[in-house]
Each structure stands twice: as C-alpha cells, then as structure tokens.
Amino acid sequence: MARKGTSTGDGKRHTTIREVAERAGVSVATVSRILSGTYPAAPATRAKVMRAVEELDYVANHHARALQGTTRKSIAIIVNSVISPHYAHVAQGVQTQAAEDARLCQIGTTGGDAERELAMVQFMREQHPEAVILVGNVNADDEYRARMSRYAHALAAIGSRLVLCGRPPLGPDAPAVVVEYDNTGGAFAATGHLLSNGHRRILYLGRRPGYTTADARIEGYRGALAAYGVPHDPGLEADGTFERFEGYRMMQERLAAGAPDFTAVFAANDQIAAGARQALLERGLTVPGDVSLVGFDDLPPAADIDLTTVYQPHEELGRTAVRLALEHARNGGPPPHTVLGAHLVIRGSVRPVVPA
Amino acid sequence: MARKGTSTGDGKRHTTIREVAERAGVSVATVSRILSGTYPAAPATRAKVMRAVEELDYVANHHARALQGTTRKSIAIIVNSVISPHYAHVAQGVQTQAAEDARLCQIGTTGGDAERELAMVQFMREQHPEAVILVGNVNADDEYRARMSRYAHALAAIGSRLVLCGRPPLGPDAPAVVVEYDNTGGAFAATGHLLSNGHRRILYLGRRPGYTTADARIEGYRGALAAYGVPHDPGLEADGTFERFEGYRMMQERLAAGAPDFTAVFAANDQIAAGARQALLERGLTVPGDVSLVGFDDLPPAADIDLTTVYQPHEELGRTAVRLALEHARNGGPPPHTVLGAHLVIRGSVRPVVPA
Questions:
Q1: Calpha distance A90→B82 (Å, rounded)
Q2: Pfam families from the xrefs (chains A, B) (predicted)?
C-alpha cells in the first residue's frame, strides 16, 4: 500500500498532519486544534479527524517518536526455547535490565537448530541491537567455535557485540563478552552434601559428553567423589538430556534392572530431578525415605517438591550480560569475562545414611 | 563504520567477493576457487581469504541469502513475561508453527507496561512481520480498546495483521484475528468436579474484576454453583493476581483468620494453587486430606504436586494463532475468530466429602 509522507533523518517515515487533514476533509489548523485538545470542536468533526488519525497511524508514529530517544535502542537474546525455566529466567533478567537501561528487549528462539540460529542472528543484526546474547548449553566443537567467531566478527563490524551467557569463552580471536556461572562448583557442593550425609552410591543423571554445561557439572560430581576418597563408578552415570521426561526415562530404566543399587541421586538439573522423582514414586519408593535426591537450578518445581538443589543466579546472569555489554559499548577495550557463583539450597529431599 | 558494498533490491546490503579479494590481497578468481572448495589452495592463501571472509561477514551474508527465500519472513509475539509458564508455552507453540511454516519467530516482552507494549509493536512493525500476536489477560477498558484498534489499523496499513490470543475480540471496527480458549467452560468443569464430590464451601482464589481471563473464570465458578443450587457467598472469593506468591499470600491471610471455613479451593491458575498449597502445608494441613484443591492450566508444577486441574491447549493456542494469521494473509476477508476447548485433568488433589 503506497502512502506519501515525510522521511525523517533516521530513515523512518511518519504520517504528516497534512495527510490527516486531507483524509478527514478538514483544514490543517482544525486537525492541530483537535489534537492539541485545547479548543472545542464539533463532535462530528472530531470523530472524522480521530478516524483519519487512526487510519493513518499518526498517533502511533507520534507517540513512538516521543519514545525513540529513550527506548528505541535494543538488546537481543537468543535461546533454544522459552519453556525451559532456565532460559526463561535468564531472558527475564535480560528484559528487566534492558528496561532499566531504557532498551527494548527482543527474544529469538531457535529450537536448538544451528540454521535457525544463524538466520536469527542475521535477522536481529539488521535491527542494529547493541548486543546479541546467546544462552546455554552447547556442544562446543570446532563447527560451533567457527560459527560463534563469525557472529562475533559480524556483530563487531556494525558496532554491536556478541555476548555468551552460560557458555565458555571462545579465545582471543573472537571478541565476545562472556558471563558464566559456576557449574562445577555448584555440582561439587551438591555431591559433597550427599557425601557428608553418608551416601556413597550416588547415581548421576544427565551425562552428555561434549556439552559444556553437562560436562562442567559431571566434573563437579567426580571431583567431590575424589575429594571424599570415594571410588568413581562409571556405572552410576546415566546419559540423558536436561528435560523432565528424560529424568523419568533414566530412572525408569535404572529401576527396571532391579532394586536400586544407590542410596542417593544427583540430577544434573531440577527438571531431571522432577522426572526421576515421579518414576521413584510410581515404583512405591519415597524421597527421601528410600532415596535421597538433589537437583540443580532452584527453579520450579524445586520448591513444590521440597527439593534440595543448587541455586544459580539465572536472572542475575541475564542482568549481568546486559550490564557488561553496555559497559563494553561505552568503554571499548577487551570484552569483559565474569563468572557468577552458585550455592546449595537445603530442603527436605536428603536423609542421612545411618552407618550399618 | 562505513563499508562499500552492493545494495540488493530488497534494501539489504551484502559484502561482495571483490571486497573479500581486496582485503585478502588476492584475485577474485582465487577467492572464488577457495570458497567453492573444489580446487587446492596454499594454506597461507586460504587462511588469508577465510580471515577476510570472516571480517567482512561474507559467509554469513551468503548463507543468509540462501535462507532468505524460506525463512526471512517472520511472526512476532508480544507477552508480559516469559517466566509465566502459560505465556512461555503459547510462545513455544508460535515458534513451532512458525518454524514449520518457514518463518522466523521473535518474542517481545513488556513487563505488563502499556508504553513498552506500544514501543514494542512499533519496533516490530518496522521489520514487517506477517503478524503481531498479543497474548493474555488484560483490563479491557476503553483505553485498551482504543490502543488495540490503533495497532490493528497500523499493522493492516503495512499488510500485516494483529492477532489477539487468549483475549476477547475488539468488535467490527478493529481488524484483528482472534484465538480464545474456553475459560468459563473450564472453570465451570473444575468447580463442578468439586461440587460433584460433595463440596459446598469452595474458596475461589484469584478474583480480579475488570481483567478478562479472571472475569471469565470466576463466571464459570459462579455458574457452576448456580447450576448445582449452591448459594453464592462473596466472602469465599479472594482477590489476587495469577502468581505463586499471590496464592501463598491469599491462603495465608485466610488461615490467619482462623480454621478453614471451606473444604475445597478452586485456584484461578496452577501457580496460585501451588502457592496456596504451600501455605496449607506450612499450617499442618494436607491436600486433599484436609482441603481439596483444583487449579487451572495443567502446567508445571501441576503434575509434580498431583494437582487436579483444567487442561488448556497452550501450545495449540500459539499454533492456531500462526495458522489463522497466515491463512488470513493468503485469503484476506474478515479476520477469523476461533475458541479452543479446555477439559478437566483428574489427579489426586480432590477427596469426596462424606455426608455427616
């Protein structure tokens, strides 16, 4: 639909008061009087003008122009999916900080598909965000590193920047801001809590070799076993992704093999813990009566199932990503890199083992 | 940063092979040979070219151009927040359907603020999405209707369309696609289930007069009471928003007044139900031993707390929004309007009342 109008210096097009007047069949002075609201006008004339304003979107443009100076700058965040509580809470933190800094925040999702991620980065790049934040667990292979390096350079070329959130740094050749949290430390604390309570056979649910988050957490699990002098049994590590139905599947398969050969479970996240708990309850086993259980995240449903877990600062992760990106935009220099802490939250899902 | 390049017909700028050659200090033919991957090249030359390609973002542009025909079209969805499981699941449905229809999906959040919503609609409109989907509970006052009408006209003016998802229609003057679900029918079924189990004193948590979703649900609650011939007691309706901490607060306040004067609770959503359950447990009351509990949504943590609730098709709502929008884009005509159903999911949180 072709419409005439003025083109402003920033390349955006705004409907003019003259167009409104033409469409309503009244003078420019009449439109001006009615829009200013300070003069009386016949209801019929007023209705004609307001209708023309709506049809030509004058008010919206006008309103948006008023907002432009403060909020038209933007921050983009790209996640696999927003139904994962972890991604959703990080995105919430990004939104909150962006709002405080008078930036719009837009979220892109990829469904975990690299092609869609590339298309999304390109799409968002065209809107010149100050930063594009990529979140989460990845298989950090060579292809991944090459892709991230391309993003980093492509964004730097337009004065924007890549932020990796909950992902490891890329090395000196790729200019990316990095905000991580302490997966290994948190997993060490969770496993240590079970060991301190006398557990020696601790099932690990959610091994996924090659994936950064999964690898960092299992490293914490193994590190705690070593620190407590408990022999590492690879037979106690079950492979699976970080979803509830996977937790259910892993525990079901384990229980199908016979009575539990473990007294406690460390689930790589709360979703896995919730699924595993359901499988235990369905077999008539109780938590923590028969099996102690610890998760990772402290996100729903952790509190509702009284789960001892590791708190990680999801929203703070998103907020920090925005803060560091804007700081880097102002000051330049080498992109900042920071690691946030994680700590244990004690609830009722762990029972001490009484020595025989 | 000023860079030369070709401008394509669609207004986008692409780096050329000539620029890559200049930057790498080799011939165009050499770049072409190396990028095609079909001819051998000296490692040092190859490294120079790949470095220039990365710096100039040639690969990303090239790759994106290949994708453009299928995925550069987009759908936008705007929600208050992505940490509400309801919004997150609707957004997931939009993303899934958009991907199946080869569209990119971008999500904007507003924090429930009308100014940010306006800025977000304007921002997304500049990217010419085929549809802008607005989701969720609103206070449907005159200001709201005027704002939606402006959005609808502003989007129609660029050949896009407004989609209202889980919101009532605006009337004939505002061209919006509408996808609703049956809040009143679902609430009637939930309350009817408690009444069928002999409950007569049913506490309603989450009244919020003026808000469309809250009003539709309490209408179902009152309708079921009337259908069963149970007198309506306004003292059994508690005011609050749809969040977990609000459910906790409402139940805590109720219990602070003395022993429960109700045998069952209908919470306006599962988040409220989870918060209310926590307050009950902290007072030493059990569900369903002392108090029966029904929610609305069938989203986490419903299954984990064994909650009887109303299933509503969140992801299908998002998928339908995309389908109807694209159908309307193809066929024109009056914007479609549809209502999806909701049904009861029976779990273990309701106990029959034995007549005295």
A1: 10
A2: LacI (PF00356), Peripla_BP_3 (PF13377)
